[in-house]
Amino acid sequence: MKPVISIIMGSTSDLPIMEKAAKFLDEMGVFFEMNALSAHRTPDAVEEFAKEAKGRGIKVIIAGAGMAAALPGVIAANTILPVIGVPVKGSVLDGMDAVYSMVQMPPGIPVATVAINGALNAAILAIQMLALSDEALAKKFAAYKNDLRQKIEKANAELKEVKYTYKCN
């Protein structure tokens, strides 16, 4: 099978964050690829990747980067595919530099940006995009959301059993 989502990271040091996206895509049964590309160290490879991604069947790109975080923006500048940026905490600015780099893109070059280290939410957003035209995936995602609801309902039921002298309920 061919991948439909591409997970790109600025370096393999971002893997502990970006693997959260990979695990969720695995759970959803969606084929993906995962590569390290650097907007600063391998700019030609980034441009080539971005320009060829759609032709290879990629539908959504998740790009994680820290510090100056140019990677998602450079990819977005070179493709018509949606790009979801994951700011990676890794500098003295605790990832805020990466957030600003991603959310402050010029008009016409958007990067949908999730929270710092929010690779799981990036994968969830990518699944929601694909589910718009894939009924089977939409059903899997609806089941995932239902499981989230059930976990909270179970937690609340368990909390009712926790006793304190002044706890009301």
Describe the structure.
With 169 residues, the chain is an alpha/beta fold. The chain has a single domain, classed as Rossmann fold. It contains six helices and five strands, in the order E-H-E-H-E-H-E-H-E-H-H. It has helices spanning 15-28, 43-53, 71-77, 96-103, 119-131, 135-160, and strands at 5-9, 32-36, 60-66, 83-88, 112-113. A five-stranded parallel beta sheet has the order 2-1-3-4-5, sandwiched between helices. Helix 3 (71-77) links the parallel strand 3 (60-66) and strand 4. The longest helix is centred in the C-terminal third of the chain and has 26 residues, at 135-160. The mean pLDDT is 96.
List keywords for this structure.
five-stranded parallel beta sheet; globular; Rossmann fold; 169 residues; alpha/beta
Q: How does the helix and strand content classify structurally?
A: alpha/beta
Task: Quote the beta fraction.
Answer: 5-15%
So, CATH architecture?
3-Layer(aba) Sandwich
CATH topology: Rossmann fold
CATH uppermost class: Alpha Beta
Q: How far apart are the first and last residues' alpha carbons, in Å?
A: 53 Å
* Number of self-contained structural domains: 1
**How large, in whole angstroms, is the Cα Rg?**
18 Å
Tally of contiguous helical segments? 6
Largest sheet entry: 5 strands, parallel
Topology, number of strands: 5
Shape: globular
Helix content: 40-55%
Q: Encode the helix/strand succession as letters.
A: EHEHEHEHEHH
Widest sheet: strand order? 2-1-3-4-5
